[in-house]
Structures are given as C-alpha cells and as structure tokens.
C-alpha cells in the first residue's frame, strides 16, 4: 500500500493532548463535543438519531458498524443528533435487504463526521478510567491538521453540565402520533382504536418510544419541552408521559420542573417518565441529579426491579443519574443498575406516578422492559 493510501484523513484530539489518527468518512470539517462509548452490537442508526446524544460523539465498541447500511424506517428523529462517530473498522459495502443507503453517504448528506481505524478498545478504557473527555474531531481528505488548535478547541469546550439541550431537539409545535411498533410484513401499522389520551412532553423523544405508547393503546399528543401545566391540561389527558432527552437535567428543570410539580399537586393523573423524563420527575419530587464519570450507553445493561426481583437486560443512554440518597420520604427506588448500583427507577407510594432511567422501547436493544408501557396504560384504565 502506498504512503498516499495510508495517510490519515481524520484526527480525534482529546483535551488531555492524546491524539488518535484514522481514516475519515461521512462529512468533512470539524466538530467539538463530549466523547462517550456505546457497547450495543446493533442499532447504530438508532443511536446516531437518538436526541439524547446531542452534544456527544459516540465511540462504538462493536467493530462492524455500517455493515447493514441505513434505512429511513430506523431513524429515531429526522436527522442524526450525535455530533459524530468513532469506529474501529471503516464500513464495508452494506449487505441487508432493508438497506436504502450506505452509512458513509448518509452521514455526509447530514453533516456528520466519522473516523475509522481507531483503537476503540484503548479509547474506551481511557474513557472508563478518566471520565468522558472533551474532544475535537476533524476530517480532511488531504490530511492537513493543526493538532495544537484541535487540542485547544477540545479544552475550550464547555461540557454538558449546565447545558439545557432539550430546547434544541424538542418539537417546534404540538402534533398527534398514531404510528405503532414495526410488525412483519407491513411495517408500521396505525392505532385506530385508542383507549387513553396521553400528552407526551418532548424533551428529545425517540419515535419508537411514541410507537410503544400507541401500541399500548394510547392516543398520543406530543407537546414541546417548554409546555406549561395549562398547555398540558388543555388536552384533557388521561395520563402524561415525560420523554427522554439530552443535556443537564437541572438546566432543563428550570422550566420543566414547575410544570411537573403542578401536575402532581393539582391532579391525580398517571405520570410515566423515561431517561431525562425520569430525572425531571425526580427533581420535581425534591431529588437531585449528578453527572456520572462516563455514563451508561449500551443495549446490554442489567437492571433489577426491587418489587419482583426480576433482572431485565435494558438499553441505556445517559450521562447524568438520579441520586437515590436524595429522594424524599414517600418516593421509592424501584429499579437499580447491577453494573454500578446507580438508580434506574422511582415511584410515588400509593400513586400511579413512576419513571425509569433506561429506554424500554428496544430501539436498539432487548424488549424485556416493554411491560412498563402496559403498566402505564393499565394505570389509566
């Protein structure tokens, strides 16, 4: 192989000065973000389009990324939200009957940078040991990089603490949702006989979470993250859903927590939260959230439900967690991570108000936790 073929065309610079060189694909240019790693073996497209990844670049520990191409059916939102991706091997030509486009072309068309040929094992170990670093990622087909400038950009990144990113990924206006979970052979059917009116507050909602609500019998109206108590109640809901989303929960809580407190104080409505929605509920109840060392990102996280003793394999994506020690009397921890003991669920004793940290909609990931949508529907019945 000639020197021209081996010349690096992408550079990942960490704030501590560590440099990873590789081959770029997707869009050209540069971006600055927090770096995390995801251990899922499938679902790279769902991960890249998960709004919870705003402000982050994702390192994939599984090497075969891009091999099945991409399809519009698997987008969790309109465009990729993650800032970029880091992989061990560059994508080969896709091989899947559902593939509509190559991953590299899809990333390029949507302005997302990727780097391949990186020792992702070494990078992941560094993230685990030192915490999620701030990084700059650059792709230049000519291989010209100002390393010092890239490191300086990484060091100047403000980080995710204190950032309200929900307002950047939420919907601009309210809309109805009736699409249900994918089913062979017709794809996504429509909910034509809903039993429960649900308002879903969109902090960065994944489409498959909304599909799961529809599949559980819900007529779903999605409202922006900034929706007030009056906005929610104007729809006369049977229950309220608080979605997943990115950023620092304390920052988003500045406007979301007062709305949730009013819901809890003035109504007896069932409330169900996932991910950022779980953290919003905890804050509204008087709990606190903390930034994690490197977060939980993957589709293989074991979570135990205290009431049943059942262990579920779950999909997770969060860099902040609820501090279980801060929960007030009457608020009970329901689920816990078996990786590190961190909080993964809460409920109010004697009321149909509950939330979980993990993503039970299986996109990507296992379906062990789908019962939570059915539990929410049953609480409205």
From TrEMBL:
Pathway: Amino-acid biosynthesis; L-arginine biosynthesis; carbamoyl phosphate from bicarbonate: step 1/1; Pyrimidine metabolism; UMP biosynthesis via de novo pathway; (S)-dihydroorotate from bicarbonate: step 1/3. The keyword Nucleotide-binding applies. The active site is at 275 (nucleophile), 359, 361. Residues 8-138 form the Carbamoyl-phosphate synthase small subunit N-terminal domain. SMART domains: CPSase_sm_chain. It catalyses: L-glutamine + H2O = L-glutamate + NH4(+); hydrogencarbonate + L-glutamine + 2 ATP + H2O = carbamoyl phosphate + L-glutamate + 2 ADP + phosphate + 2 H(+). Keywords: Amino-acid biosynthesis, Arginine biosynthesis, ATP-binding, Glutamine amidotransferase, Ligase, Nucleotide-binding, Pyrimidine biosynthesis. Its EC number is 6.3.5.5. Residues 1-188 are annotated as: CPSase. It is an enzyme of class 6 (ligase). GO terms for molecular function: ATP binding; carbamoyl-phosphate synthase (glutamine-hydrolyzing) activity; glutaminase activity. InterPro entries: Anth_synth/Amidotransfase, CarbamoylP_synth_ssu, CarbamoylP_synth_ssu_N, CarbP_synth_ssu_N_sf, Class_I_gatase-like, CPSase_GATase1, GATASE. L-glutamine binds at residues 52, 245, 247, 276, 279, 317, 319-320. GO terms for biological process: 'de novo' pyrimidine nucleobase biosynthetic process; 'de novo' UMP biosynthetic process; glutamine metabolic process; L-arginine biosynthetic process. Belongs to the CarA family. Small subunit of the glutamine-dependent carbamoyl phosphate synthetase (CPSase). CPSase catalyzes the formation of carbamoyl phosphate from the ammonia moiety of glutamine, carbonate, and phosphate donated by ATP, constituting the first step of 2 biosynthetic pathways, one leading to arginine and/or urea and the other to pyrimidine nucleotides. The small subunit (glutamine amidotransferase) binds and cleaves glutamine to supply the large subunit with the substrate ammonia. Composed of two chains; the small (or glutamine) chain promotes the hydrolysis of glutamine to ammonia, which is used by the large (or ammonia) chain to synthesize carbamoyl phosphate. Tetramer of heterodimers (alpha,beta)4. HAMAP family: CPSase_S_chain (MF_01209). NCBIfam families: CPSaseIIsmall, PRK12838.1. This is Carbamoyl phosphate synthase small chain. It comes from Pelagimonas phthalicica. The gene is carA.
């Amino acid at each position: 192989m000639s020197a021209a073929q081996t010349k690096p065309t992408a550079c990942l610079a960490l704030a501590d000065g560590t440099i990873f060189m590789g081959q770029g694909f997707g869009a050209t240019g540069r971006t600055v973000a927090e770096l995390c790693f995801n251990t899922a073996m499938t679902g790279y497209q769902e991960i890249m389009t998960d709004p919870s990844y705003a402000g982050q670049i994702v390192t994939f520990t599984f090497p075969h990324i891009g091999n099945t191409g991409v399809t519009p059916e698997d987008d969790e939102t309109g465009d990729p939200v993650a800032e970029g991706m880091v992989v061990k091997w560059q994508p080969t030509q896709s091989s899947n009957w559902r593939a509509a486009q190559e991953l590299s072309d899809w990333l390029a068309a949507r302005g997302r940078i990727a780097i391949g040929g990186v020792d992702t094992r070494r990078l992941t170990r560094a993230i685990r040991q030192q915490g999620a670093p701030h990084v700059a990622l650059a792709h230049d087909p000519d291989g010209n990089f100002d390393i010092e400038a890239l490191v300086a950009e990484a060091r100047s990144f403000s980080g995710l603490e204190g950032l309200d990113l929900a307002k950047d990924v939420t919907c601009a206006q309210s809309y109805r949702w009736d699409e249900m979970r994918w089913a062979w052979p017709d794809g996504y059917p429509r909910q034509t006989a809903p039993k429960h009116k649900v308002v879903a507050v969109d902090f960065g909602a994944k489409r498959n979470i909304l599909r799961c609500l529809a599949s559980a019998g819900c007529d779903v109206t999605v409202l922006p993250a900034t929706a007030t108590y009056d906005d929610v109640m104007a729809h006369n809901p049977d229950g309220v859903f608080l979605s997943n989303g990115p950023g620092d929960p304390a920052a988003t809580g500045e406007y979301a927590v007062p709305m949730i407190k009013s819901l809890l104080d003035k109504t007896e409505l069932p409330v169900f939260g996932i991910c950022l929605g779980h953290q919003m509920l905890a804050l509204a109840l008087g709990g606190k959230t903390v930034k994690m060392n490197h977060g939980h990102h993957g589709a293989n996280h074991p979570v135990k439900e205290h009431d049943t003793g059942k262990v579920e394999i779950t999909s997770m994506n969060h860099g902040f967690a609820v501090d279980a020690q801060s929960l007030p009397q009457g608020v009970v921890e329901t689920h816990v991570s078996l990786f590190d003991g961190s909080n993964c669920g809460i409920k109010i004793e004697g009321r149909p108000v509950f939330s979980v940290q993990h993503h039970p909609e299986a996109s990507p990931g296992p379906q062990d936790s789908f019962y939570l949508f059915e539990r929410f529907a049953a609480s409205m019945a």
